[in-house]
Amino acid sequence: MSGMQETICVESVGFWRGRRKVLDGVSCRLRAGTLTALIGHNGAGKSTLIKTILGLIQPAEGKVSVLGRAPGSDPLSIGYLPENISFYEQMTMQAHLEYFADLKGVARSRVDELLEALGLSHVRRNRMNQCSKGQRQRLGLAQALLAQPKIMILDEPTVGLDPQASSWMYAQLAQLRSQGCTVIVCTHELSLIEPFADLVLMLSGGKLRASGSVAELRREANLPAVIRGFDAAAVAATSAAKYLDGDLLRVPDHDVAEVVRVLTEETKDFDFDIRRAGLSEIFRAYCVPAAQTAEASA
């Protein structure tokens, strides 16, 4: 990842809302061709951070650069899909995209291209009040993609979508990433984004509590893997016995390979299941204690 072009640089950013500091010394660097999960409790500062990157608000402290310039300098370089996007209910899908294309100075041929690519050609003449939630989200993504942005920011893009529509959305985001786009997804649906996230930014109480890949954060949090489906009596006579917890093995991440060796070579057991801590558990390890501390001091 180190060879990829840096697209967003956030340095020691702080922002106040009244007497409350909603961003406190936040720093991160994002690169082209990556997908970042921006996660945190409600009120953690996620939306405020997004607004500073979009150039909608100015930080009180620190600085932000987007594609080497001040945020908002080149609005067409950033696509944005808010959580609640509004459309004109009596306008058709095609009319909406043509309207946005004209506003952005994009050729209308791009409208046809996106309607086809996002599976909306068959409903292009439907009015918005005839469209499903999934179709509306696809249209929202289409308007954000009109100018072929280098950065794409999405706020809760899968809320209210069925599993098939959610899978489709992340497939599109993975494709954008493969084309060199910097993708930022703000979401509470951690299990959905976990397989796609190259970088995770965890905010709590306005502070960046952790950042890194899922694997890196799991190791740093020292969360155990859970192994089940083995012969506990046989394991009790091995060096892995110290990890036994009833009919489970709770193994520190860095010892999983050795325990697997013990199971397969010493107890000749191959029919077991390993479950490493997921993003939800990692998030709780980093951010729940921080949130409780913030509430206690408030």
Sequence-ordered SSE layout with sheet pairings:
Blueprint: E1 6-17, E2 20-31, E3 35-40, H1 46-54, E4 61-66, E5 78-81, H2 93-104, H3 109-117, H4 133-145, E6 151-155, H5 163-178, E7 182-186, H6 190-193, E8 199-204, E9 207-212, H7 214-221, E10 225-228, H8 232-235, E11 244-245, E12 248-251, H9 256-266, E13 273-275, H10 279-297
Helix pairs in contact: 2-3, 7-10
Question: Keywords for this structure?
Answer:
alpha/beta, 6-stranded mixed β-sheet, 10 helices, 13 strands, 25% strand, globular
Commentary on this structure:
α5 links the parallel β6 and β7 (182-186). The protein has a six-stranded mixed sheet with strand order 5-6-7-3-8-9, sandwiched between helices. The chain has a four-stranded antiparallel sheet with strand order 11-12-10-13, with no helix packed on it. The two termini are 39 Å apart. The protein is globular and about 75 Å long. It is 35% helix and 25% strand. The model has no long low-confidence stretch (mean pLDDT 92). The chain is an alpha/beta fold and 298 residues long. The protein is built from ten helices and 13 strands.
Q: What is the end-to-end distance?
A: 39 Å
- The number of E-state strands comes to 13
* DSSP helix fraction: 25-40%
Largest sheet: 6 strands, mixed
Report the portion of residues in β strands: 25-35%
**Which radius of gyration do the C-alpha atoms yield?**
23 Å
Structural class: alpha/beta
What's the order of the H and E elements?
A: EEEHEEHHHEHEHEEHEHEEHEH
| Shape descriptor | globular
Low-confidence stretches: none
User: What is the residue-averaged pLDDT?
Assistant: 92
Strand order of the largest sheet: 5-6-7-3-8-9
Q: Total number of helical segments?
A: 10
